[in-house]
Amino acid sequence: MNILILGATGRVGNQILSHALTDNHQITLLVRDPNKIKMNDVNLTIIQGDVLNEDDIVRVMPGNDLVISALNTDGTTTLSESMPLIIKAMENEGIQRIITIGTAGILQSRITPNLLRYQSSESKRKSTRAAKEHHKVFDMLKQTTLKWTIVCPTYLPDGERKGEYRVEHNFLPEGGVEISVPDTAEFAFNQIKSSDYIKSRVGIAY
C-alpha cells in the first residue's frame, strides 16, 4: 500500500512510520526538516516541504492509497489551516481514506451528551485551544465524502506498548485516564486495514 504520512517527526507520527515500514508499505513523508527523520529504508521517500503550502501538499499526494495525519497543534493553527489543503488534494486525486490523530476533548461528553468533552465539565484541561483546533478539523472532515477516522487519545505519555487497551465509538472509554504513545500509534496504524471506525471518532484509553 502507498501511504502518505504527515506529522512523521512527532511522537505518534514517528511510531506510525515505524509500523508502516515494518509492514513493508511504500511511504511518502512531507516534512519541514528531513534531518529529523532518522530512518533509512528503500520503501521510504522523504520530501521537504510544508503542510501549509498548497503546492507541497499537491506535490506529495499523487499515487497514494491513503493519508495518515499525525499533525499536532504545537500552539499554532497549522492543524486547521492545513486540513482544507489536504482534503482538496485528496479529493482531486480520488484518495478516499484518511486517518488522523485527534484528542479526547472532541469526543462526546457523557455528562452532557450534546456537548463535546472539552466543552463540558468532563474535561479537566484548563486550556481548550488544542481541542478547538481538533474540533475545526472534525467539522471539516464531517462535510466531506472521505472515509475518515479520528483516533482520539486521552492523556498521552510516552510510556510503553501494552498491546491491550479499550476503544469506543465517539466516546472516551469509561474511566479512561491515559494511553501511551506506542499503543495509540499501533491502533491508528491498524485502521488502514479496518473499516470499523469509518466516518467516526474513536476514543482510546487503558
Write up this protein:
- The protein is an alpha/beta fold and 206 residues long.
- The chain has a single domain, classed as 3-Layer(aba) Sandwich (Rossmann fold).
- The protein contains five helices and eight strands; from the N terminus they run E-H-E-E-H-E-H-E-H-E-E-H-E.
- It has helices at residues 11-22, 54-60, 78-93, 129-142, 181-190, and strands at residues 2-6, 26-31, 44-48, 66-69, 97-101, 147-153, 166-169, 200-205.
- It has an eight-stranded mixed β-sheet with strand order 3-2-1-4-5-6-8-7, sandwiched between helices.
- Helix 1 crosses helix 5 and helix 3 (78-93) packs parallel to helix 4.
- The longest helix is centred in the middle third of the chain and has 16 residues, at 78-93.
- The radius of gyration is 16 Å and the shape is globular.
- The model has no long low-confidence stretch (mean pLDDT 96).
Provide tags for this entry.
206 residues; 20% strand; single chain; 5 helices; alpha/beta; Rossmann fold; eight-stranded mixed sheet
Can you describe this structure in just a few lines?
With 206 residues, this protein is α/β, with parallel strands linked by helices. It has helices at 11-22, 54-60, 78-93, 129-142, 181-190, and strands at residues 2-6, 26-31, 44-48, 66-69, 97-101, 147-153, 166-169, 200-205.
Topology of this protein?
Layout: E1 2-6, H1 11-22, E2 26-31, E3 44-48, H2 54-60, E4 66-69, H3 78-93, E5 97-101, H4 129-142, E6 147-153, E7 166-169, H5 181-190, E8 200-205
Parallel strand pairs: 1-2, 1-4, 2-3, 4-5, 5-6, 6-8
Antiparallel strand pairs: 7-8
Helix pairs in contact: 1-5, 3-4
